[in-house]
Amino acid sequence: MLIISVSLATFMSALDGTIVNVALPTISQNFHVPTSTVSWVCTSYLLTMAGCMLIVGKTADRIGYRKIFILGFAIFTTGSFACGFLPVLLDSLYALIAARVFQAIGGAMITAITAAMIAAYLPFEERGRGMGIIMTTASLGMAVGPTVGGILTQYLTWHWIFYINVPVGIVAILLSARYIPADREIDVSKFLPFDKWGSIFIFIGLASFMFWISEGAAFGWTSLPIIASLAAAVLFLAAFVICERRAADPILDFGLFKNRNFLILNLLASILFLSYSGVNYLLPFYLEYVQGFDVAFSGLVLAVLSFSLMAGGLVSGALFNKRGGRMILLCGTVCVLVGYLMMIGFNIATTLLYIVPALCFVGFGLGMGTIVINLIVNSVPRSKSGMVASITGLERFAPMTVGIAVYNLIFIGSISYLGHRELAVGQPISDMTLMFRHILAQGFEITFTIAAVFGVILVILTFFSRQVVHEDYVTDANRELVERITKK
């Protein structure tokens, strides 16, 4: 029941990340605003989540996971209701954006500490299975989000994409209150002063960075808002680093990254999610514009990614105690690399018999590779597990936005260069459609080659990584298991 409580958090977070996008055109028409304005329904959520993640992790270490988790679900559920109700009451898109900010605070609270809760409340021998279930439910949320959002928007109203969170949130709160153990008694008087300046600097710095990377293409990379956001990101993140090195009780302990294995595992997690997010973003365009599939059929093909990811997560959890996390991680990154290498061969003539296995390799490998989160959290003291879990949450969340922007830049740059080259040679007008498809196919080939390079880096990093279990999690009952799997 505890795993179900935590899994509901990852499911709701993943669902909310995909369910809203499909309703944006309808919301735009409802409020008679341009797409550039309605995009703030998603952007405001993204910026708030990024800014709050590390602050939540540190706060949870100080006051307890149960309090943060239940309060986070209460805020998220209330915010979801407000997202559906307030825009109708006030007839204002800005009311929806404000409600999304409030909802995102709760979203950050339930997302940032899920890995820490698995480490805190489950015995070591159950953590692999628990993390596998959690990643499976997250994949399910991502998979069903667009479908559920489309059905609710078409047959009810767009408000129901938010109302659907309310009953699930209420169930999650009741389950959490019943089954999550009470937080240990904490003597607040022994705590050093909270790092308020670090909190301010990291919130503004990360929010500015996420705005720059997510909105750069829309505003123009040389536009004043984008340049200003980049400058603010550099300034405030630099101030954050300086502040944390001097803080008595920092939000982010940079000393953790002096450990080579901890640094490698965190790099691996970031690159894993960055590479996948870009591929996942571009694949619908390949299937529709190069292969010529309709939207519905493309969605069915892409479902292979989500379901294979779920399978990989369940397999990694089942094998954790037998093979150890490092071996599972190696198998996962190799599968991801094989899938990316196969995707380089995607062109006009590629058949589903080739496309589907490639997607299966990528999805299954990612599902197994997510065990890296478990390895990261298990390697640090219990007192810092909330902080480190929030780092892994940020590494799942932020690189996905960065990956979309990076792959999009590479793809657009590639087809622009290829298009100019083809037009310079000269082609009959009758061949322009076919030529355009070939240019797109070559653009995807170049971009997927970059994904393969990321895949090679992932495998190399895995070879240099180790599975380390901190003494805080080692007991007489599990010592033999820990020694066996950490040697593999």
Description:
The protein is mainly α and 488 residues long. Helix content is 81%, strand content 0%. The longest helix has 41 residues, at 385-425. The mean pLDDT is 83.
Q: Provide the structure class.
A: mainly alpha
Low-confidence stretches: none
Helix content: over 70%
- Any idea what the radius of gyration is? 23 Å
Q: Largest sheet, if any?
A: none
Topology pattern, helix = H, strand = E: HHHHHHHHHHHHHHHHHHHH
How far apart are the termini? 31 Å
- Average pLDDT over all residues: 83
Tell me the total number of β-strands.
Answer: 0
What is the beta-strand fraction? Answer: under 5%
Total number of helical segments? 20
What spatial form do the alpha-carbon principal axes imply?
globular
Brief overview:
The chain is mainly alpha-helical and 488 residues long. The chain is 81% helix and 0% strand. Helix 1 (2-19) runs antiparallel to helix 10 (165-179), helix 14 (295-323) crosses helix 16 (352-369) and helix 15 packs antiparallel against helix 19.
